[in-house]
Amino acid sequence: MTISSFGAGVRLALATTREHKMRSFLTVLGVIIGTGAVIGVGSIIAGLDGAITGLIRSFGPETIIVSKTTAMGHATREERARRPLSLENARAIEARCPSVQHVSPYLFPPNGIHSARYGGNDIYNVQLGGTEEGYAAGGTTMKFGRFFTDTENTHHMPVVVVGEDVARQLLPNQDPVGKRISVDGHGSAGRLAAGPG
How far is Cα 160 from Cα 153, in angstroms, rounded to an integer? Predict the structure, then answer.
């Protein structure tokens, strides 16, 4: 290919682009949309992978989760027929398995829309769960304050550990430690745990 033929090809391409502006625009737009879609899907997949990996890694390599069913909401008939796990099951594991360092039962409240309130701020569809102080031994990182203690658990004191997202919505730009929030109409002293909430 000579320089003159290359120059002629470039001139022909530019002339075609000028004469067919709409076709050229649509071609460029298609390339931009296609490239953007590939980059967007790749970013979403990478983000989900990082989030799931981080969640699993936060449990630690020595953590075992025991539940009645293998997947929430998609239990088989055999799994639904199993007896529910109880606090006595957790106590039996703790007593009879010397290699288990911490046992932390986790209770989900009945289905429904749960809410939290502080001052004039309300949030709905809050994910609630009840546990014991041993849950923090699994690697819970506190951003402010501390996790509740065995004494607070034993005496059923109104203490709550709230996730970072909940604290950001209920108490924007405030230290949540010691604040009284209302969860489903019941008052509690707030403590903040880092992580999703």
Answer: 10
Using DSSP, state whether 169 is helix, strand or coil: helix
Least confident residue range of 13-27, 144-158, 179-193: 179-193
Does the structure show a pLDDT above 50 at 196? Answer: no
Identify whether the C-beta of residue 164 lies closer than 8 Å to the C-beta of residue 194.
Answer: yes
Using alpha carbons, select from 126, 102, 98 the residue that is nearest to residue 112.
Answer: 126
The whole-number pLDDT of residue 197 equals 42
> Which residues on adjacent β-strands are paired with residue 131?
none
Other Cβ atoms closer than 10 A to 65 = 7
Strand, helix or coil at 181? strand
Chain centre distance of CA 193? 13
